[in-house]
Amino acid sequence: IESQLGNGKTLFINGLMCLLSSEGFRVFFLNDPTGNANKEIEDICALDTKILVVIENYHRHLEILKYLGHNRRSNLVLVLTSRNEIHDVYYLDLEGALNNSAIREINLDKLQDIEITKLAYILSVHGLWGRHAAAPESEQKQLIKKKHRSEFQRVLLEVIESPDIKSRFEELLRSLNSKTHEGYREALVLVCALKV
Question: Which pTM does this prediction carry?
Answer without folding.
Answer: 0.74
